[in-house]
């Protein structure tokens, strides 16, 4: 069975052109100090410099811009704990339409502020999937808005695929490319870009041990939703999406897990050695490389730094 009927190489390229005025072509950065620590050549794709501070700007922009005029009339809606919420609010604002965002009450304040600044209307709910989905249903029924899911959506995945597309467009030949995985939109998009533009590059997901449903699902060959996620990486708490799982199952080599202590250590290294502001979820791939040095020894390894929306008053180190 072919799990990618909706996306091909031309569509990823078209998506990059479509969203060009709404997102940054983010830079690649390196660190000789981290190369020595990891025993391999690391290339970091800095989505922490992206609009709204995260890769989510890509998928949201692509999804909104692909709506036809009749779909845009009543705006868009979603449920999200943070980065997708801000990304959709911004994309909607740029398109001149309203955005209605259902957010758990426990979402980081910095992410709630971002949604408001981009003109999004927030509806808070209890911090569980059932409450989020019920809140979304009410919003859609009330306003007639189009639901743009955070990750389990072809147009969103297509937009996220443009991140890795940019890496390969710069002519880099990577042995491995790592992406964090929560709902799986970025990892699925990354896997598709590698499949079409750099088939010799292995794509590996990185995930917290406290929210390891993607790893379990990958090994079992079926989706196993996370029940009680517990990790500092708040952007990776969601369960793997259905569309994403199909793509990941076929095109991802492996999923590696790390604990919170390793995530914090990797996060601190990026702050200290690269002078970059990143959120905990962003540090998970580097933590995975440092935990598995033998596996990556002497290879050229790409790491997607997924976002930089962190509450600086709550940094997990001093």
From TrEMBL:
For activity, the cofactor(s) needed are: Mg(2+); Mn(2+); Ca(2+); pyridoxal 5'-phosphate
Q: Does the keyword Magnesium apply?
A: yes
Q: What PROSITE patterns does UniProt report for this protein, alphabetically?
A: DEHYDRATASE_SER_THR (PS00165)
Note the Pfam families from the entry: PALP (PF00291)
Look up keyword Magnesium and say if it applies.
yes
Which top-rank group of organisms is this from? Answer: Bacteria
UniProt KW keywords: Magnesium, Pyridoxal phosphate
What positions does the domain Tryptophan synthase beta chain-like PALP occupy?
21-307
Protein's name according to its UniProt entry: Pyridoxal-phosphate dependent enzyme
**Per the UniProt entry, what species is this protein from, by scientific name?**
Cyclobacterium jeungdonense
């Amino acid at each position: 069975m072919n799990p990618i009927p909706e996306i091909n190489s031309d569509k990823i390229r078209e998506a990059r052109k479509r969203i060009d005025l709404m997102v940054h072509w983010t830079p690649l950065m390196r660190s000789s100090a981290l190369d020595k620590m990891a025993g391999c050549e690391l290339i970091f794709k800095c989505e922490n410099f992206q609009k709204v501070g995260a890769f989510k700007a890509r998928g949201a922009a692509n999804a909104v811009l692909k709506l036809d005029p009749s779909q845009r009339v009543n705006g868009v809606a979603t449920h999200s704990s943070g980065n997708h919420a801000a990304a959709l609010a911004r994309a909607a604002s740029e398109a001149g339409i309203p955005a209605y965002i259902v957010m758990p009450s426990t979402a980081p304040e910095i992410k709630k502020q971002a949604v408001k600044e981009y003109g999004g209307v927030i509806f808070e709910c209890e911090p569980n999937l059932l409450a989020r989905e019920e809140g979304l249903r009410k919003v859609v029924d009330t306003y007639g808005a189009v639901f743009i899911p955070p990750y389990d959506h072809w147009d969103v995945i297509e937009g996220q695929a443009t991140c890795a597309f940019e890496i390969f467009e710069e002519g880099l030949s990577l042995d491995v490319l790592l992406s964090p995985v929560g709902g799986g939109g970025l990892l699925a998009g990354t896997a598709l870009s590698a499949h079409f533009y750099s088939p010799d590059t292995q794509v590996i997901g990185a995930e917290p041990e406290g929210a390891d449903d993607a790893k379990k699902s990958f090994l079992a060959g079926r989706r196993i939703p996370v029940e009680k996620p517990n990790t500092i990486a708040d952007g990776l708490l969601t369960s793997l999406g259905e569309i994403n799982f199909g793509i990941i199952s076929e095109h991802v080599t492996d999923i590696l897990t790390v604990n919170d202590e390793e995530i914090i250590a990797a996060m601190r290294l990026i702050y200290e050695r690269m002078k970059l502001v990143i959120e905990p979820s962003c540090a998970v791939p580097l933590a995975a490389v440092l935990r598995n040095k033998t596996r990556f020894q002497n290879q050229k390894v790409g790491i997607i730094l997924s976002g930089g929306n962190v509450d600086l008053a709550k940094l997990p180190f001093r």
